[in-house]
Design goal:
β3, α5 and β4 form a beta-alpha-beta unit. The two termini are 35 Å apart. The strands form two sheets. Strands 5-4-3-6-7-9-8 form a seven-stranded mixed sheet, with helices on both faces. The chain has one domain: Vaccinia Virus protein VP39 (Rossmann fold), CATH 3.40.50. By secondary structure, the protein is of the alpha/beta class. The structure holds S-adenosylmethionine. The site of S-adenosylmethionine (SAM) has 21 residues, from α1, α2 and β4.
Length: 287
């Protein structure tokens, strides 16, 4: 088999998936810094400021600069708060967070979730573990360092799950960079976990899934900037709501859409409010 390629056994087909190169990994890992910086700057969400302070102390200040003219920080707050609402209201004690980056969900959900498992690429995962252990040494979260498109990471995730507890699996700012092939791979892994343990998968709605908004100059510029920064061209290929719904349904999921929480601390304009009104989160359940 070609190096850097993983072979996946899907139910009806075999998918050859190309894993990320080192340069791609570095570029996409750095996208996690500005999102937590936006939360630290605009919200009172606990631990964000402490995390950013530690990153600045490690001489990585340029990675946490938020460009306010292009910023869509209110969407970062929106997805953060909606995720915690779904987990708390559903009473999920077991969680898998994909592409967790540096956000402090595990810290802020410690009263609800007893088995918190997060996965990210190695550099971010190790940095997060170190920072969180300094901030809250008693927190017993699991940090899986790996590629979510690699079946080895899923063997580890499966081995950390406890029987008898439904699992909330979620991703913020990750699926927006995915190809259809990658989503199919994730759908296989997630579907198997939900079928065995019960639970759900959820992700935020994103501008990538709203091609109808790309005529707005700020949105177009944001798409270009994020594509360049992440070195990921999937982001600039929009998918419609209908196509994405069909994709998940074809993978065997029941798709529900929910209105997001709109009481936000981050300021947003009247134009942003119109964007906000079009978004609905994605909740997927096993059939
Ligand atoms: C935009 S950041 C979002 C981070 C965090 N969820 C948030 O909302 O701030 C995307 C995250 O996904 C991680 N990521 C991207 N591709 C990944 C992959 N193939 N496997 C694991 N993590 C990945 C990146 O390292 C980064 O931490």
């Amino acid at each position: 088999m070609e190096k850097n390629v993983t072979l996946v056994n899907a139910s009806h087909m075999r998918i050859f998936m190309k894993l990320l190169t080192q340069a791609e990994k570095e570029a996409i890992q750095y996208t996690a810094y500005r999102t937590v910086a936006a939360l630290a700057k605009n919200t009172s969400i606990p631990y964000c400021r402490e995390i950013i302070q530690r990153i600045i102390e490690e001489n990585q200040a340029e990675l946490v600069e938020v460009n306010s003219s292009l910023s869509l920080s209110y969407l970062v707050e929106l997805r953060y708060k909606t995720s915690e609402k779904i987990i708390k209201e559903g009473g999920y004690q077991q969680v898998i967070e994909l592409g967790a980056g540096l956000t402090p969900h595990a810290l802020n959900l410690k009263q609800t979730v007893s088995n918190y498992i997060e996965v990210d690429l190695e550099e971010n995962s190790c940095l997060k573990r170190r920072i969180v252990q300094e901030l809250e040494p008693s927190l017993a979260a699991h940090y899986v360092a790996g590629d979510v498109f690699d079946s080895h990471a899923w063997s580890t995730l499966n081995s950390l799950l406890k029987p008898g507890l439904p699992v909330a699996i979620f991703a913020e700012g990750l699926l927006i960079y995915s190809s259809q092939e990658q989503r199919r791979f994730l759908g296989e892994q997630i579907g198997a976990i939900i079928a065995e343990h019960d639970g759900l998968f959820f992700m935020e709605d994103s501008l990538r899934f709203h091609p109808e908004l790309q005529w707005i100059p700020k949105i177009k510029q944001f798409t270009i900037a994020l594509t360049n920064k992440s070195k990921n061209t999937n982001y600039s290929e929009p998918i419609t709501q209908e196509d994405l719904t069909q994709e998940w349904q074809d993978m065997g999921f029941i798709v529900k859409r929910i209105e997001p929480e709109k009481k936000l601390e981050t300021a947003y304009s009247a134009e942003d409010e119109q964007i906000l009104d079009t978004l609905k989160h994605w909740l997927l359940f096993a059939r």
